[in-house]
Amino acid sequence: MARADESREAGRSETFDEKMDRNWGELLQELRVLQTGVQILAGFLLTLPFQSRFEKLDGFEIGLYLCNVVLAALTTALILLPVSAHRRLFRQGLKEVLVSSADRIAKTALAAVALLSVGTSALVFDVTIGRTAGIVAGAALLAVLLVLLVLVPDRLRRKAPGRSTVNGADH
Questions:
Q1: Distance between CA atoms of residues 45 and 30, nearest Å
Q2: DSSP secondary-structure letter at 47?
């Protein structure tokens, strides 16, 4: 009996260009999901200065807030980068380069979203419960995200039978 991955691969007959197109579409869908999360966090952050309690933030909390706002803006730009590159390089025969680059950008964007989540959670806990709670919440979330976003996928990759990739972007 053939393994599940062998039967999937045997059932997929696509040219290199079709594979690149499929990978590009999948990467764009992943970036759309990331963008939604960043928009929600950024929207939350942008409303804070208009709250009455914002005036009571200390220097650490204001610094953490501003770092989160900058990180949200940079993460948004990072997520938009593959689309911008595609628009500028459209029809120049560079799909493989775009897919490979977008793969690396998506991984970087995932890390940035994780850091933004950690920073935002730390800020909320700091303001509502206290500095120690903010630091503990941020550190705990960072540990959980490292497990979920790095260790679990790495373990899944190691458990998977030998799969070939194209520039690390085969899905």
A1: 23
A2: H
The one-letter amino acid code at 116 reads L
Per-residue pLDDT tens digits for 55-98: 999 999 999 999 999 999 999 999 999 888 888 888 888 888 88
Under 8 Å between Cβ of 123 and 61: yes
Q: How far apart are CA 133 and CA 61, in angstroms?
A: 13
Q: And the tokens for 166? A: 């194209």
At which residue do the structure tokens 């009996």 appear? Answer: 1
Residue 163 φ then ψ, to 5°: -110, 135
* Helix, strand or coil, per DSSP, at residue 168: coil
Query: Which tens digit of pLDDT belongs to each residue from 34-43?
Result: 888 899 999 9
What is the three-class DSSP state of 57? coil
Give CA torsion, residues 26, 30, 35, 36, to 10 deg: 110
